[in-house]
Amino acid sequence: MDARSPQKQIITVVFVLCALILIVRLFVLQVVNKEYKVTAFNNVLKYEVIYPARGLIYDRNGAIIVDNQTAYDITVTPREMKDFDTLAFQEVFSLTREGMMQLMDNINSQRRKIGYQSMVLLKQITPEEYARFLEIAYKFPGFAVQSRSIRGYETPLCGNLLGYIIETDPKFLEKNPEYKAGDYIGKTGLEETYEPYLKGEKGNTIYLRDVHNRIKASYENGAHDKAAVPGKDVVSTIDAPLQAFGEQLMKNKVGAIVALDPSNGEVLTLITSTGLPAEYLSNFSKHYSDVIVDPLKPMFNRAIMSAYPPGSVFKLINGLIGLQEGVLTPETKYGCSKGYHVGRGVACHAHPSPVNLQQSVMMSCNAYYCYVLRNILDNPAYDNISASLTKWRSYVESFGFGHKLGIDIPGELSGTLPSAALYDRYHGKNRWKSLTIISLAIGQGEIGATPLQLANMAAIMANRGHYFTPHIIREVVGDTLFRPSMERHDVLVDRSHFPVIVEGMYQAVNSAPGSGATARIACVPGLDICGKTGTAQNPHGEDNSVFICFAPRENPKIAVAVYVEQGGFGATWAAPIASLMVEKYLNDSISDTPARQDILNRVLQGDLLYRVLK
Amino acid sequence: MRRETNFFKQLDWWSVVLYLALVVIGWISIFSAVYDPEHGRIIDTTQRYGMQLIWMVSAWALAIIVLTIPARIYPMFSGIVYVLGIILLMSVLVLGAERNGSKSWLVLGPVNFQPAELSKVFVAMALALLMSQPHFKLKSWRGSLQTAALILFPALLILMEKETGLALVYASFLLVLYREGLPSWILVFGLAIVGIFLLTIVLPLLTVLWVILIGCSLVTILLSVKKWPIFLRLGIFTLLFFGVPRLLSLVGIDVYAYVEPAQLFIGLSILLLLFSLIYAFVKRISHLKVVALCAVCAMGFTFSVDFIFNNIVQPHQRARIENLLGIDKDIYGTGYNVHQSKIAIGSGGLLGKGFLKGTQTKFNFVPEQSTDFIFCTIGEEWGFVGASVVVVLYLLLLLRIIAIAERQKSAYGRIYGYCVASFIFFHVFINIGMTLGIMPVIGIPLPFISYGGSSLWTFTLLLFILLRLDTSRQ
C-alpha cells in the first residue's frame, strides 16, 4: 500500500492538531488561569469560625453587670430535610400558618444555592421552645440546634448606658472590612465605645470538606488553625445598685439623672428616662421596630444629648463670674419686689428682701441675678457688650458648658451657649444690649445644657473650682496601657470665690423652716447636702424641674444633677430624687423616718408621663 | 508454524508498552480518585481500584488469548461475530437491566456487562470484512448502502438502549471511510452542516451569518482569478475587509461610527458574492457558482435552524440540547459537572498537587470521577505536565496504530486498524475535551484509563486483534 496516501497524511495532521488543542486548553486552564485555584480552595476548605467570648462589664464594686449566656438558634440543612410534620413544627415554635409558610419559602429559595450547607432559620428561641424541640427533634430531619453566645444582664440596667449587641449590617461591613457577615458588634453605650476591647479575636479551624459539606479532615493538621482570644473585661465606674435605684425613681418620668464622683470624674450613674428597657437588650433586633416608633424616644440618651435650659441652677455661675470680674461682692445687696422691673422684666417669687449673695443663692432670687448679669455685661472695663459677652462666654465654657465633656460613650452633644455673633444675627449688630438677653441671668434663653454638664457643674462646686473629665470605664482588665481620660480642668474663677456660693447652696438645703430656703425638701440629716434648685420655663408645657447638688459639704463624695421634664418646681421632683440618690449612695439605704419614706414613695409612684405625652 | 517463531519479533512492542503505560496510569488514577484511608489494601474488591485490578488482569489474559488465535481466523469469523453481536445488542433491549436511565447492561451473575461497548469490536471486524471484499466499491450505490446499513443498524440499537454517547462514537467510522476513499467534500459538507448547526445555537444569528459569509468570500477569492499568486488574492481579501475602513479612517471618515463592524462585513461579503456570481456566469466558472450556492444554502439553513430551535423545539428539549452544548452556565444545575471538572483540572497548576493530594476529585466535587471524569484526577494531581504526558501517550499510540494499519498487506487489516484508531481518537478527544469544557458532555469513557471492565476489555480486544493481525502481516 502507498504509505504516503494523502488521506493518511490528513488524518495524522488531524490527530496531531486535536492533541495540540487539548494541550493548549490544558495550558490555559492550569497555568494561565488562576481563578480555578481559588475556586478549588473555596470548594474544599471549610472555615469554622470560633467566636470569642465577649468581655464582661463590671461595676465599680466588682459586681458583674453584663456577661455572656448561651442562646439557641434553629438551623436547617435543606438537602438533608425530608417531608416533616409542619403542624408539629408550627406548634413547637408557636408560629402562625403564615409564618410557617414564610419559613418554608425561605428554605426553598436558599435550597439550591447553599447545597449541603446549613442556614439559620429561627434565631434565639426561648428555653421552652428549645426543650419542646429537643423532645421531638427526630421528627424533623435536617433541622438542628446551634448554640450562640449572647449577652446576659445580671443587673437589668438602662440600655442607653450599656448598649447592645447586634448583627453587622452590609453598610457597616463595607466600611469595616475586618468584620465579616454574621459577626456581632456593640452598638451605643459602653458596648460601642469599648468594642475594640470587648470583642476579642475570632479564631478558626480549617477543615477539608467533601461535596456534601461533610468534614473529612483537618487542613494541614491544623497548622493554620487559630484559637479564639476572649475579649477583655472592662471595669466601669457605675454603681450598679445606685443606677438601678435611680432608674426606679425615674420610672414614669421623662428626664435624666447623672451622678459623678467629683474627686476624679467617675460616673456613678447615667440615667435617661425613658430609655431602652434592659429586657430588650439581649434580643434587640426583635424589639427594634417597637423602639423606633415609641413617642418617648428611648434611643435618645437625654443624659448626654438633651440641651435643656438649666434654669436657676445657672445663677451659681453668674454669681461666680460677677465675683471674679469684681462687679459683685459677697456683701452686695439688692432689693426684690417680686421681680426685676426694668425693660421686659423678670418675675420672682415672694421672699425676704433685700438679699446678699449668699441669701440670693439660698432663696434663688431672680432679680438679684439680673443686677449681677447687667453688671457683668455693662462693665465699663470692656469696650462694648460684644466684648463683655465674649468674656462671660469664656467663663461659662470653662465650667464645661457649650462643648462636649468627652465622656466615653457615643452620642454626647455639646448643649448650646450663645455668642455675640448669635445675637448680632438675631437682633442685628449693635441692636441688642444687656437687657435684651437678661434671661441668661437665670439660666433661660439661648442656653442649653445636658444633664451631664449640670452634674459636672455640681462637681465643680464640690471641688471649689475644677473638674475631671467624666468617664465610665476605669480599667480594662489585662491591658496595662489603658488609661481612662480623666484630665483635670480648672475653671477661670478663682477658688477663693467659691465658699460663699457653696454656703448659699448649703443654706438652700439645710436652713431652718421659714428662712425662704428653696430646697429644704432635699435635706437629709447628717449628709450635709449642698444644692440648688431650678425651675426652667418650658414652652411645651409645665416647667422643668431641675436640681443639682453635692454631698457631703467637705470632701464631697457625690455630685448629682436631676432633670425632670414638666416636673414643675425644682423642689417638687428633682430635689427629692437627688436627695434620695445621695442618701442611697452615702448611706446605702433610705432611712426609715416617715419623712424620707413618704418622699421615697411619692417619687416611686409619681407618674408624669401624661404631661409629656399630651 | 514459521510465523510463530517470528512472533515476538513481529509483535509491535511500542504499542504494547504504550498500552500498558495507559492502563497503569488508569489504575493509579482510579486508586487516587476513590482512595479512602479506611480501605488500606490494594486488593480490595469492595473498592473500585480492587475491581479494576481484576479487570486489568483479565484484560491481559484476554490479550494473550487473542494473540494465540491464528490471524486468519479473524476475517473468517467476522461475519458470524457481527450477527452474534447484533443478537446480543437486541437481547439487551429485552433482558437488559436499567441503570441511570439507560438499558444497556447485561447482568451475568456478579458481573455487569455492556454489549454496546463490545459492539465496536464486531462492527469494526465486519466493516473491515465488507470493505475488503474484492468487488466492493464504496462509491457505488450498493457499496455505500451496505456500509451505511452495517454501521447504522447497531448504532440504532444502541440509541434504543439510550446510550447516546456510545452511539455517537459510530460517527468515528467517517474517518475510516474517508481513508478508504469517501470523497472529502462529503466529510467537509457534513462537518459544515454540524458546525453551522452548533454555531447557530451557540452564537447570535448575525455572527453565524458573518462567519458563513466571510468563509465563502474567502473561498471565492481563493478560487477566482487563479492566475494571480495566492498571497495577492489573500491580500485583496484582507484589504477589503480590514484595510478599507482603516484607510477611510485615515482620511477622516470613521466608517464604524455609522455601521457595526459585523454589518459592514456582511455587506461587503454580500457584494463580493454577488459580484463573484455574476463573474462566474460571465466567465463560466462552475466552482464559483457552487460556492455562491453554498453561501445561500448555508444562510437559509442558519435561518431555519434558528427559527426551528427557538420557535418549534419545546423549551425542555432546547434546554437539553443547550446543556449538551454547554451553553447552560448554571453552575449549580446542569452545568455543575463541567464547572467542577474545570476547577479540579485548573487547580492542578503546572506540576499538580501530587499523588492522593487532589482535594476536588477525592472529596467528590467532581462527579463520576473514576469513570467519565477520570481525567480530572490526572489533571489535578499531576498538573499540566502529567496531563500533557497522557495526551501525548495517546497521540503516540494513535500514530503508531496508523503506521501499523498502513503497513498491512491486506485491506482487512488496514481498515480494521483505522477503525481502532478512529475509536480511540473519538473517545479520547471527546472525553478529555469534555472535562476541559470544550466538548459537549457525552458520557463516554477514556480508553484504557476509565474504570470499568466493558470499556477496558473492548479497547484491549480492539488493540490486540490489530496487533495479532500485524504479527502475521508477512
What's a concise summary of this model?
By secondary structure, chain A is an alpha+beta fold.
Q: Mind explaining what this structure looks like?
A:
The complex is a heterodimer of chains A (614) and B (474). Chain A has 614 residues and is an alpha+beta fold. Chain A is 36% helix and 18% strand. Chain A contains 22 helices and 20 strands. In chain A, the strands form six sheets. In chain A, strands 2, 3, 4, 5, 10 and 16 form a six-stranded mixed beta sheet that branches. A five-stranded antiparallel beta sheet of chain A has the order 12-11-20-19-18, sandwiched between helices. Chain A has a three-stranded antiparallel beta sheet with strand order 1-8-9. In chain A, α13 crosses α15 (366-377) and α14 runs parallel beside α19 (498-510). The longest helix of chain A is centred in the first third of the chain and has 27 residues, at 6-32. Chain B has 474 residues and is mostly helical. Chain B is built from 20 helices and three strands. Chain B has a three-stranded antiparallel beta sheet with strand order 1-2-3, with helices on one face. The mean pLDDT of chain B is 81. The interface between A and B is large, with 39 and 46 residues.
Features of this protein?
heterodimer; A: 614 residues; alpha+beta; 6-stranded mixed beta sheet; 5-stranded antiparallel beta sheet; 22 helices; 20 strands; 36% helix; B: 474 residues; mainly alpha; 3-stranded antiparallel beta sheet; 20 helices; 3% strand
Which geometry of chain A do the CA atoms define?
elongated
Content of β-strand of chain B: under 5%
Beta-sheet strand percentage of chain A? 15-25%
Let me know the number of strands of chain B: 3
What is the count of DSSP helices of chain B, taking H or I runs of 4+ residues? 20
Major sheet of chain B: size, sense and barrel closure? 3 strands, antiparallel
Order of helices and strands of chain B: HHHHHEEEHHHHHHHHHHHHHHH
Q: What is the global morphology of chain B?
A: globular
